[in-house]
Amino acid sequence: MHKLLFPLVLLTLAACGGDKPGQASAAVEAASRNLQPADKELAEIYNRSCRSCHTIAATGAPLTGDTAAWAQRMEKGKDVLLENVVAGFGGMPPFGLCMDCDADEFDALIAFMAKGQ
Ligand code: HEC
């Protein structure tokens, strides 16, 4: 009997993983992967620079379209967020890996990720 129970316990633990406070749910994570900026050039930058982390909850990055997570970040103000992207912040490397992005592009990328559109 316990041979059957063991995998069941593992499954239950895995299923609970996304429900830790402050961590995005699996549904929010899945939804983030389907979001793209409407602007074609911005989408290209987003896909090569920001998307790899901002659609994976395990990176610790606020997920694209996770409006609750982004609301807390946006409270810091646009300028602070921009400075943090440029300098690097926590697990995020400097420039969020977009070395040739300018301030306007970063602002647009942040606005897109915060709203998911
Ligand atoms: C290698 C992974 C990675 C990449 C690539 C990445 N980010 Fe991040 N980003 C993170 C992580 C992790 C955090 C959360 C850091 C923390 O709170 O400790 C974060 C946080 C942020 C924040 C919030 C900063 C704050 O002050 O709270 C902004 C804004 C942001 N990222 C924008 C971007 C943009 C724009 C891009 C693409 C140009 C990008 N990121 C690319 C991992 C990444």
Question: Your description of this structure?
Answer:
The chain is 58% helix and 0% strand. It is an all-alpha fold. The chain has a single domain (2-115), classed as Cytochrome Bc1 Complex, Chain D, domain 2 (Orthogonal Bundle), CATH 1.10.760. It is globular and about 55 Å long. It starts with a helix and ends with a helix. The model is unreliable at 8-19 (pLDDT under 50).
Mean pLDDT equals: 88
CATH architectural category: Orthogonal Bundle
SSE string: HHHHHH
Radius of gyration: 17 Å
Bound molecules: heme C
Strand content: under 5%
- CATH hierarchy class name: Mainly Alpha
Give a brief rundown of this model:
The protein is mostly helical. The protein contains 6 helices and no strands.
List its traits.
117 residues, Cytochrome Bc1 Complex, Chain D, domain 2, 6 helices, 58% helix
Helix/strand layout:
Layout: H1 2-16, H2 26-32, H3 40-54, H4 67-74, H5 78-87, H6 103-115
Bound molecules: heme C.
